[in-house]
Amino acid sequence: MNSDPSAGSADAKSVAVQSIEFVAAGSRDDFDAVIHPDAYNHETRTEPPHTRTRGPASWYATALWLRRAFADLDFEIRHAVADGDLVAVEVTMSGRHVGQFVNYDESGAVDQAFPPTGRSFAVAQSHWVRIRDGQVIEHWADRDDLGMAQQLGWTPPGPAYLARMVWATRRARKTPPD
Q: 20 to 30 Å CA-CA from 118: which of 4, 57, 65, 135?
């Protein structure tokens, strides 16, 4: 048994950081390695319905959903702090809006669609990750969604972009979720 108490914290931080970095570029196998089969992501309420399940498939589905909308997706790790099985990770998420970004309501229906603007963004986020058996078992986040929306021109939308949003939302409601 390892008697160094910081070793467990280092391992927990490494797993938590990997789980966030993999959203930008990880494979399904990467998610299988760090996400517990019973893991639950508390942040999927506005994501496609198939991201709202437990386990690595849910995390991978979230990653693909974000990657379709944002090129050059990156999570710059600022800090990671562990306290027992809980790890807090401060990041800057950045990317460029190149694909349609669709939000869903709690029932899983399309709520709003944002057509690509080509604009870049960089926003602060804090992720809270609980580790069990060397894998992520729970995740919460505090994100600057308003800052991202402002940088991408989603809010306040100009008249032309508002019209594009209406048409994109109508099209998305006719198309099954990604």
A: 57
